[in-house]
Specification:
This protein is mainly beta. The protein has a single domain, classed as Neuraminidase. It contains 1 helix and 26 strands. A hairpin with a 3-residue loop joins strand 16 and strand 17. It is globular.
């Protein structure tokens, strides 16, 4: 009897040990996890973006008393000697002495062997905002005067542009006006001098979606992943270089009606940063926590790899992600509307578990 009890205890201990060894922390691969700033001249910050310049990383976001308030401007910080510089306001929405609008959703893009571009929006609200562009010739230290984009164009609405092999810069964009939430692309062959549109890709009613990320594949396929009001990340595919796009439909991943971002890695995998949250049935929104990272080889089947934040306190949101020339992945995101976080990841060290039926694995 004693031997049977001892064997049972030993077997149980062995099983628990094996479980603890195999349990995944979803933190493997994180090299740096830091705030870009600790104190700032603004109480709230949101919608960050990141780019790699020849001199290092540059991040931007909008900051002010509160989103939509006229004092909200675009702020920039640079990573120098492994430390982020103090935030500097580089753009605002001043129209004249008596009128000032809020700034929104900056997007950085480094032209290969060229200027650093910073797209942003200015307006009284999302439906009424206009697209602007400033550029830097010294890796984000100083900036040009603001230039309004061509009438009817916003530039990339939240997520970074992608330069295709034909030399065209494809800016994923969207609108939120009277016709609903609709997706489109704004394409420039000369880095902002001239533009053309592709889309809209959806009617804004049956599927309400905005803020696409653009992914590419070695066979020439293109894919977008988008925020939606459908309780799922929605997707669309092109097999002809972006000329035509498939119907916008829900993907295999949930969405809480908050911004996401994705990047095509050098090894061919797709990496997505998003809130793995399924709102309750009938509800178009869910909490902005946790903040997750998933990877996929085909854009259809996804593996859970990281949980960046999982506190019940909400507002870990609006990620921006890039892969730098050294192969590392960098993510910036909103931390409780109080800070902008930066995370550096080694993608070769990511460990994945299959996401099945929209359930984040244990």
């Amino acid at each position: 009897m004693r031997r049977s009890l001892l064997n049972w205890l030993l077997c149980g201990s062995t099983a628990l040990l094996a479980l603890s060894v195999s349990a995944q922390s979803f933190k493997d691969g994180i090299l740096v996890d830091e705030n870009i700033f600790e104190t700032a001249p603004f109480p709230e910050s949101h919608a960050s973006t990141i780019a790699e310049t020849p001199a290092g990383l540059v991040a931007a976001w909008f900051g002010g008393t509160k989103e939509r308030n006229p004092d909200v401007g675009i702020w920039v910080s640079r990573l120098e000697n492994d430390k982020w510089t103090a935030p500097v306001e580089v753009a605002n929405g001043i129209v004249n002495e008596k009128l000032r609008y809020a700034c929104w959703n900056p997007v950085l893009y480094q032209i290969p062997k060229g200027d650093l571009m910073l797209f942003y929006k200015v307006g009284p609200n999302v439906a009424g905002w206009k697209g602007f562009l400033i550029t830097s010739k010294d890796n984000g230290k100083t900036w040009s005067k603001p230039a309004e984009l061509q009438e009817g164009y916003l530039g990339p609405v939240k997520n970074k542009p992608v330069l295709l092999a034909n030399g065209e810069l494809w800016c994923p964009s969207s609108t939120e006006g009277e016709q609903g939430w609709r997706l489109h692309f704004e394409v420039t062959p000369d880095f902002g001098k001239s533009w053309r549109k592709v889309g809209p890709l959806n009617d804004g009613k049956s599927i309400k979606a905005i803020q696409p990320s653009l992914l590419t594949y070695v066979n020439g396929d293109m894919q977008i992943l988008c925020r939606s009001q459908s309780r799922s990340i929605v997707e669309s595919w092109s097999k002809d270089g972006g000329k035509t796009w498939s119907e916008v439909v829900p993907s295999a991943l949930p969405n809480n009606n908050s911004g996401t971002d994705a990047v095509t890695l050098k090894d061919g995998r797709q990496l997505l940063v998003y809130n793995h949250v399924k709102p309750p049935a009938g509800q178009p929104k869910g909490p902005r926590t946790p903040l997750n990272v998933a990877v996929s080889k085909d854009g259809k089947n996804w593996e859970a790899v990281l949980v960046l934040e999982d506190s019940p306190i909400s507002q870990y949101s609006y990620p921006s992600v890039i892969q730098t020339s050294d192969g590392m992945v960098h993510i910036v995101y909103t931390w409780r509307r109080q800070r902008i976080k930066h995370v550096k990841i080694d993608p070769s060290r990511l460990k994945g578990k299959a996401i099945v039926d929209e359930q984040w694995p244990i």
